Amino acid sequence: MESIAAGTMVGREREQEVLAGLVTAAEGRALVLRGDTGVGKSALLDHVAALAAGEGHRVVRAVGVEAESELPFAGLHQFLYPLLPHIDRLDDSHRRVFDVVFGRSEGSPPSVMTLGIAVLDLLSLAASQQPLLLVLDDGQWLDTSSIEVCGFVGRRLTGSSVKLVVGLRSDVASGFDTAALPQLAVTTLSEKEAEQLLDMRHPGLDPETRRLVLDEAQGNALALLELPPHVLRSGRRTAGREALSGYPGIPLPQRLQQVYGDRIRALGDAVRTELLRGALDGVGAGAAARHPRGTRYRMLNADEAAAGGLLDIDPLSGDFVFRHPLVRSTVVQLATPNERRAAHAALAQVHRDDVERRATHLAAATVDPDEEVASALEAAAESVTRRGGAMVAVSWLTRAAELSERPEERSRRLGDAAFVAGHAGLLGQAQQLVGADPALGGDHPPASVVAAAYVALYEDGDVRSTQRHVGAAIEQLRDSGAADSHEVLTRLVNLLLAINQYAGDETSWERTHTLLDTLGDLMPAASRVYEDAWGDVVRRGAGVRERVEAAFAALRDPEPWDITRLGAAAYHVDVLGQYRPLLQRALDRESGTGALATSMTMLHLVMLDQMAAGEWDEAQRSGQQCVELASSHGHMLFAHHARGYLGLLAAMRGHSDRARELQAAVDAWARPRGVGFLTQIADAIGTTAALTEGDYEAAYLHAIGITLPGTFTPYAHQAPRTLLDLVEAALHTGRHEQARTHALAARRAGLPGISPRLALLTHGALAMTAADPAEADHHYRQAETHPGAHAFPYELARIRLAHGIRLRHTQGRKAARHTLTLATDTFDRLGAATWAERARAELRAAGASPLASSAHLASLTWQERRIADLAAGGLTNKEIGARMHLSPRTVSSHLYRVFPKLGITSRAALRDALGRMPDGSDA
């Protein structure tokens, strides 16, 4: 607003110097301009855009508007739309990402990291021909998804020819507040600068009016430009002073709205109608980028408003745009309710091909019940739910219920809203929705049971009463034969299975199987997968892995809870790793929308896969994040669930005091409530901690608390997972018969066919307990060469340690060194200090120096070694990138550095190079 002419400005020397440095910098940078409303941020953005254009930059501009703040990627569209010609030059994976973002193909939205990497590549391509400046005004109104991507990109512009400048209002919170981008505070003008701007833009003011404006504006550039005409139009200075000063304590922006209000009231009705439609549709303030998501409302015949200083002309499109966001908000505030409803009705026609925009405008235009509008809102809620907008979906479903013409439709939609709210962890909102309709809280409450059970389960771990209530509701729906009850029945069935999973009780599970068998064709196919995977994989797990993989392959535009349920099933059959990219994308999407329960479940699953894959530092962070999130919202079940996993992680690392502290906390909370899933984890913590310490008697006693030798306690999910623990503890305490019995029981139960991890554990247990050397060698070989073995480095290292000890005793020290070194290196990489020291002791007993024998790997960083291991296991660069959240190009660069360090020239030689050890003396 301080612009005078020909790009000159009044004051702002410090800001101009910073912006000039940004434009002329040799590499990419980002900068946030933050200041009060009207202070002059837009003028500085205009200045830097003109400066960059003069230096040969291509300038792409965008503006945030409140009307789009809930529409995912709406802001990002503005930045990317002008760059679409470059997308065809990207690789296939990145093109597919943009196809989803631009709505050219269906699919789950990408994660912030995946999309951010794709955007960085697109910007780099565009900037390779001409330096690029991205300018964003009113960034506080950008949608959450776009802010996250802009923050991700802004932190990684070093090394490129791309610059990003964002203007933010300091009085409005936004995601940019935590984006960790450099900031420049834009303050008010000094007294001298304010006088200079006022005299240049409004010369000839009499001294009293001039002093009045300067006193009221207090250096605010917008006020200096807008107040003088208001005072002069009042006809006398006293009236002007009253207009400006008669509201002590009212902030300057509100007084400026009064100024704009006088101008708006002076317009004709037709012009005011045009302004209202433009304001409600989010038409930008100042020159903005052309909007790619269809047509915005075009204000016509509004020259009168432009002449009154309310509108400008967009130089790119020639359309009218609001001069300032305050004009837009003032237009809406001055309109009557009937005028606003009429404007929304007109806008619904403008956006008739956009499901979400049309529905929101129809809802705002409608007062009385209208089934067509309710249905449109319901469709919009379904659409936004698939993109992670749980909170928006709850709002739209609630409004759809209000507009329903029939009581049964109102009840159904309120039930849907309560379900989404409950599943998203919005427990208070779910309870309010249940109480909002008598039909949901009466004597026949199947729909309300879902929300009420979520509250009881998540907040207090109530598995006993929720089992009864949910089971009774399923029976009621089964017996009613209601044609429209299938969706509610599916929700109840899946909820009952989740409750049983946490209960871990054989009697409850058997009762549930019996009940679900009575449903016949009413039983959802996906729920059968959950029933078999979440319950007892030892007895019901045959073929489940293949069914889970088929279900994932069949997912089309899934709801977030579809992903979490199948993710939990994948965990139980140990194929979670291949779906972590999908989980991470969903987690990134959900965590920004307030969908707490879904986010916490996804965090649990991500943490579990990080633990299995040996990414223990990342697992620690995920678990701590989940504890903090769950605790702060009163979701005690999830908080203790995450503490259980953190306890297991601490036990594996040898942090025994911390492990036992967490074990005690989890057990004390879960055991009185009958949450068997967590009490088993508590017992597993005790087993693991004791094994790590070498207290094998204590480990054995903890292990048989989960399952006895030779059997696997029904519906105890930790029973097969602690197979190796029980066998090792038994062997070290002289219970060889019990150890062998348990290993043979695993083979008889078919555990190798259920999951890759159980195959690894079974072969390891059989090898450790075999009396025949040939049989032992066979099973060690089966374990160590299993295609899935490298996905479980902790278990593989323990098996290799046992194998190395056996080799030293049976074939001599030299034969043991290679296997013991592999075990030592793995324990070191994992951070399993106690296990690593034990392995080093064995390696010393084998006559080798652990440091010398692994020296050929010392030059590899942890990330290089991890990439090399995955590549040696047969994964492609794309698959490795998805697993480690890197671009395929970055993976390729790492491998390019790894090959010469290992003295190889091809990918095929990786496995041998990683396993090759220098010979040592057999002294």
Head-to-tail CA distance between termini: 84 Å
Major sheet: arrangement of strands: 2-3-4-1-5
- Averaged pLDDT: 83
Unreliable sequence segments: 1-7, 236-240, 243-250, 286-294, 439-444, 852-858, 917-923
Strand content: under 5%
- In CATH terms, the superfamily of the domain at 13-185 is P-loop containing nucleotide triphosphate hydrolases
What is the helix tally? 50
Rg, rounded, reads: 33 Å
Q: The biggest beta sheet, please?
A: 5 strands, parallel
CATH class of the domain at 13-185: Alpha Beta
Domain HTH luxR-type: 853-918
InterPro entries: AAA_16, P-loop_NTPase, Sig_transdc_resp-reg_C-effctor, Tscrpt_reg_LuxR_C, WH-like_DNA-bd_sf
Protein name: LuxR family transcriptional regulator
GO molecular function: adenylate cyclase activity; ATP binding; DNA binding
Describe this structure in words.
The protein is mainly α and 923 residues long. Among the domains are: 13-185, P-loop containing nucleotide triphosphate hydrolases (Rossmann fold, 3-Layer(aba) Sandwich), CATH 3.40.50.300; 191-243; 265-334, no CATH class; 861-923, Winged helix-like DNA-binding domain superfamily/Winged helix DNA-binding domain (Arc Repressor Mutant, subunit A), CATH 1.10.10. It is 65% helix and 4% strand. It contains 50 helices and seven strands. The strands form two sheets. Strands 2-3-4-1-5 form a five-stranded parallel beta sheet, with helices on both faces. A two-stranded antiparallel sheet has the order 6-7. Strand 3 (132-137), helix 6 (144-154) and strand 4 (162-169) form a beta-alpha-beta unit. Helix 35 runs antiparallel to helix 36 (696-706), helix 41 packs parallel to helix 43 (793-811) and helix 42 runs antiparallel to helix 43. Mean pLDDT is 83; it is low at 1-7, 236-240, 243-250, 286-294, 439-444, 852-858 and 917-923.
